[in-house]
């Protein structure tokens, strides 16, 4: 039975996810129309429907902000400190006690609140409210919005409609994050909390991820951090998102240290696991492609250059690593014009990127790329 599950066609999974999304959307739309008729006394004309669409957009946006605010609020209550707060691609970053606005986006996420963990034993890291605080905030504010609806339904029907739609958006955003599930290769907050509750080792990995991100945001490179944080068990379970995330960090650390063969071997080991989460798999494939190009392994490079990965690379325009990969491929082809364009995009991206340690690593890797390919072609001008 297990083998049959592992061979379940990816296309069927994709269509199943789309069907579930369409069903949720249909129910959401149907309930919204009923709310319109109830608030407006049965009259739901074009103006009301237009207002409904605007209220939905506003409600979702506000609940995204509230969701990340919930992570921050409950994180602070349990000893965490703010590292970065992102809505869309706009990111508020706390670097050395000073707040600044940067730009970053991650496929499949509308926002993210990242915090530094309390300095306790990693296995004892408080995880429950930090993970579930976002969804809890959505449900709390949804319930609060319902309180004045009856009072203003007749006097201010549009206000009542907004409050009802706002509450509905909060219920959808909150429950979709609190009910444990994986969507698009990402574990939601409820799934993370469920995983962390299983064993102390997962909580240790959770602490390491947050601590590594906090130090990197302040300017430390992965290669400068404690080596034992990136240790893996003898037979890593890459279906565990916590294990796979630390393994991905280890790949990046090995690249930073110039240990490219070890990094390639670990990335291959990760990619050999059929249960590796989609986003982590795509990240590992990006780094493995970079290593293949650097090593001149054209066979491996062709195997990795799938339409899915190319789409993911294009979507990562706010990430210096994506431009570094594109620059490497152009340099390997001897395409000076393309390399120059990717270099310009790289330099523009690092000016607004929120993780200072990653910027330092990427700049060092760009110099390493030049050193690798400069003997084969003319140098790419940097004063463009």
Question: How would you summarize what this structure contains?
Answer:
The chain has 384 residues and is of the alpha+beta class.
Present the secondary structure layout.
Layout: H1 2-6, H2 10-39, H3 46-77, E1 81-87, E2 90-95, E3 98-103, E4 111-116, H4 128-146, H5 149-152, H6 157-178, E5 182-183, E6 186-187, H7 189-198, H8 200-218, H9 241-256, H10 260-271, H11 278-295, H12 298-304, H13 307-315, H14 320-333, H15 336-350, H16 356-373
Antiparallel strand pairs: 1-2, 1-4, 2-3, 5-6
Structure explained in plain terms:
This protein has 384 residues and is α+β, with helices and mostly antiparallel strands. Among the domains are: 148 residues, no CATH class; 69 residues. Helix content is 65%, strand content 8%. It has 16 helices and six strands. The chain is globular, with a radius of gyration of 23 Å. The N and C termini lie far apart (58 Å). The N terminus is likely disordered.
Classify the oligomer: single chain
Average of per-residue pLDDT values? 86
Give a short account of the largest sheet.
4 strands, antiparallel
Strand tally is 6
Strand content: 5-15%
Radius of gyration: 23 Å
What attributes characterize this protein structure?
globular; alpha+beta; two-stranded antiparallel ribbon; single chain; 16 helices; 4-stranded antiparallel beta sheet; 384 residues; disordered N terminus; 6 strands
């Amino acid at each position: 039975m297990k083998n049959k599950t592992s061979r379940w066609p990816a296309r069927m999974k994709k269509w199943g996810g789309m069907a579930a999304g369409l069903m949720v959307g249909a129910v959401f739309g149907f309930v919204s129309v009923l709310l319109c008729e109830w608030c407006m006394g049965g009259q739901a004309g074009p103006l009301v429907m237009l207002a409904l669409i605007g209220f939905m957009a506003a409600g979702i946006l506000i609940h995204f902000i509230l969701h990340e605010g919930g992570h921050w609020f409950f994180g602070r209550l349990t000893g965490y400190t703010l590292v970065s707060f992102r809505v869309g691609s706009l990111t508020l970053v706390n670097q050395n006690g000073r707040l600044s606005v940067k730009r970053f986006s991650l496929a499949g996420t509308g926002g993210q609140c990242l915090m530094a963990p309390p300095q306790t034993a990693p296995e004892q890291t408080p995880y429950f409210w930090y993970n579930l605080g976002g969804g809890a905030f959505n449900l709390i504010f949804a319930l609060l919005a319902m309180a004045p609806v009856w009072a203003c339904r007749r006097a201010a029907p549009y206000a009542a409609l907004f409050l009802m739609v706002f509450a509905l958006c909060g219920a959808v955003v909150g429950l979709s994050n609190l009910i444990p599930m994986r969507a698009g290769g990402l574990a939601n907050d409820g799934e993370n909390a469920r995983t962390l509750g299983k064993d102390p080792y997962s909580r240790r990995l959770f602490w390491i991820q947050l601590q590594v991100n906090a130090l990197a945001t302040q300017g430390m490179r992965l290669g400068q951090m404690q080596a034992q944080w990136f240790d893996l068990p003898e037979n890593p379970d890459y279906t565990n998102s916590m294990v796979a995330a630390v393994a991905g960090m280890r790949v990046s650390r090995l690249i930073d240290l110039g240990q490219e063969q070890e990094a390639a071997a670990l990335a291959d080991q990760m990619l050999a696991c059929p249960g590796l989460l989609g986003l982590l798999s795509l990240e590992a494939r990006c780094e493995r492609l970079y290593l293949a190009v650097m090593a001149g392994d054209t066979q491996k490079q062709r195997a990795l250059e799938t339409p899915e990965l190319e789409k993911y690379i294009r979507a990562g325009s706010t990430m210096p690593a994506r431009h570094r990969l594109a620059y490497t491929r152009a340099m390997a082809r001897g395409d000076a014009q393309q390399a120059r364009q990717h270099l310009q995009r790289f330099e523009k991206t690092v000016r607004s990127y929120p993780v200072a340690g990653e910027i330092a690593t990427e700049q060092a890797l760009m110099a390493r790329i030049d050193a690798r390919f400069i003997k084969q072609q003319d140098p790419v001008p940097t004063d463009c």
